[in-house]
Amino acid sequence: MLKKIIPIVILLTHPFSALTATLQINKPVPAVTVTDRGELLLNEKGKLIYQDWRSKELVGTTRTILHIAGRLSAKELNEPLIEAIKQKKFDQKKYQTTTIIN
Hints:
By secondary structure, the protein is of the alpha+beta class. The chain has helices at residues 2-13, 72-88, and strands at residues 33-42, 48-54, 62-68, 95-101. Strand 1 and strand 2 (48-54) form a beta hairpin. The two termini are 36 Å apart.
């Protein structure tokens, strides 16, 4: 029994903060690439395709990233924010919203 508990205790007490990136004010954040179904696009034939997503392509733009649960209640909860962003009519070359549905 003790042999099963010790690895769990070690995992739970391990400082996971050491595994994260340290962000600094006025410094670029570390580059990120998502290669497994990174970005979903609609091609010219109307077919959905995936392509790699790279944060380096975002330099010079402001992004709002919304991570939303795949439930109707989550959509309703975030609707006021989404509508407020739409009403501002930000320049699409400098501002984009990315929604991640989980």
